[in-house]
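Form P-L/3: holo structure prediction, ligand 4-(N,N-dimethylamino)cinnamoyl-COA.
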Amino acid sequence: MSYECILVETRGEGSRKTGLITLNRPKQLNALSDQLMDELGQALLAFDADDGIGCIVLTGSERAFAAGADIPTMLPHTFMSAFKSGLISKNWETILQVRKPVIAAVAGFALGGGCELAMMCDFIIAADTAKFGQPEIKLGIIPGAGGTQRLPRAVGKSKAMDMLLTARMMDAAEAERAGQVSRVVPADQLMTEALAAAETINGFSGPSVMLIKELVNLAYQAPLSEGVGVERRYFHALFGSEDQREGMGAFLEKRAPAFKHS
Ligand code: DAK
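OUTPUT (holo model):
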């Protein structure tokens, strides 16, 4: 498969590798065009379907993870054309279908749809140069890919309101304090750290990894009692896996486990 707006590679040494996707429209600060989002969706689904891949890292350039949806494409739309064509809707949530972890490695601007895309990843590792924002209000619109919903869940109501209503950007240190990102690293270490995190995850049992992702996401949808109940069922279910015997057996034998992802 050849792509024009993204770069797709495989990284890692172990039996399960990391799928690395780099947003690549540098002149437009990786503005998320329709073609880019189509390509991103295809690449994500292909890695998700590949048994040799354990984890996916999504990144941009040093200057921008992504500066948002492509503004020139949006400008001419009317309500009717936006409504009838489902303006930039069809390919924006493909990432949510991915069952393997997707780590966002963010340097530079993550604005508007770029910030929303990063928030749709499972966790964000930020370079110390990262800047997050939802500046749609400056364009006379509002976020359309979950910014008003995911940002308050990530950083709380007050900071979300502040960012959404004033369009101010949050730097990496503030984003880490607010819980938007899991860690901040020096910019020149960003890919090393993100790929190392992916490599660590790749070494664990694939079904455990996928279930943890599913359950953490359930925490945002279900009441606590229901989430804990589903966790309990999955916990019991894993005692039917080969990897549970291998993991616990390896611990007792003081050796590294060799998971078979089954
Ligand atoms: N779209 C297209 N081009 C963009 C762009 C964008 N979002 N952001 C930047 N560029 C282009 C600039 O036009 C410029 O192009 P040239 O003039 O060189 O041809 C080039 O990137 C470099 O930008 P600047 O010259 O402006 O660079 P600066 O360093 O001075 O400023 C900046 C960087 C990121 C602060 C600034 O470019 C900026 O404010 N950009 C716009 C950020 C923004 O407003 N983003 C939100 C866009 S609205 C939905 C899904 C998603 C969305 C909505 C609905 N559904 C599923 C329904 C998302 C909406 C949005 O993201």
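COMMENT: Residues 6-202 form a domain with the 2-enoyl-CoA Hydratase; Chain A, domain 1 fold (CATH 3.90.226.10).
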